[in-house]
Design a protein that fits this description.
21 helices; Sodium/glucose cotransporter; single chain; mainly alpha
Amino acid sequence: MWAWSFFAIYAVATALLAWRSSSAASDGTSFAIGSGRMNPWMAGITLGACLASSSTFAIVPGFVYREGLPALIGFTLPFIAGIALGLFSMAYRFQTVGAEVGALTVPHWLGARYESPVLRQTFAALNVLNLAYLVLITVGCAYIMRDALGIPYEASVVGIVLFVFAYTGLGGAVAHAWTNSLQGIVMLGVAVLIFVSGAHLWGRIGPDLLSTGFTTPGSRLFSTHAEVWLVQIGMGFALTTQPHLLSKALYVEDRKALTKSLVTAVLTFSVFSLVLFAGAYGRLVLPGDVPQDAMMAQYLQVAFGHPALSALVSVAILAAAMSTLDGLLVAIAASVGNDIFPGAGSVWLNRLVLVILAVLTIGISLNPPSLVLLVGQLGVYGLVAASSGPLLAGLFLRGRLPAWGALGSTVLALVSYGLLNLVQGNPGVAAIGAMAMAIPVAFAPALRTREADLAELEAAA
């Protein structure tokens, strides 16, 4: 009863915010980035909520439960450092160039920077790789809804997708920002609540975590110190290039506002990361055979004995899931509507894309793979590996840039990423390796073009 009451309040509030925003999503531009003059604190909380999502609140604690200290370290300190490094090194330049060319999305930005419609459409098409992450979020959210509200898993999947896709289609980026601000504020309070829920276990956590060591032999993610630290820093940095994250730099109007947004986002995400301690608590209070992806849902039932408190926390985790789901949907739909069909983008085309994504997400989520986080990582990491070279060269080099170098970098990244995943099990290692090979391919032609331009200027002089 408590869970249904809290969820009803949350659903009504979210629906009202989306309805309030619907008049602002009148064309493709407003659907993608709103007015471009969003409150920086709102944009920052929105970005922080998108960084966290259900993977942080519902799936990642299961890795800490299973693997202990290596997972707790890897998903916090180095990962947060990588995210901060990526946001502060790229967002300002992205905002500057985006304002100059009127970019609405990351593919739009790349197409304008390289003066290549083909590059723009290529990266818009690659956004389909984010379908794996849509499935990850939906599955994690459905587990929580099943255990908190007693709704069958299949019905939870359908309900989540229909609700989130509907309010996102109604209001676009403005609805995404308003609902994420609400969700983010609730998530902040609940993250702290989950962290202190195991206060009575703090005396036992240290010895238990230390007993696991600083690496986990045989782990797919944390078998070496490099995977615990260096790969997580690299992937934190790379993940900030995702379309639904980096495009937040276009939500605010100037550098000062962007700084406020970035600081708010990093601090918000750091607080959210406290929920990973639930995995450490679960090691002490749950049986050892709990399925990893369902661990968080079971811990909440044990940790919060009062029905009202347990229900509130469960609904907040649903909010966490939906906060990233709607951000991804805005980015993908806006990209298809504005980049694959430039000049023809409209709100109704964006909404048609959402309908197609909803059908695909439901179809896959009804029969999810095991360890859904790894499957989600495969798609997302492939996208960031493909975009890293063109994006970094476009950000940090000046002057004319050849599109063929960017396309070559993208193809090499995708091929090498696929091959590396065949010979080892960590998608992060594969992505880092692919980026190491692909980024120079994007920079080298651009540097040669720049040298040629300088030579022409010297000859003319």
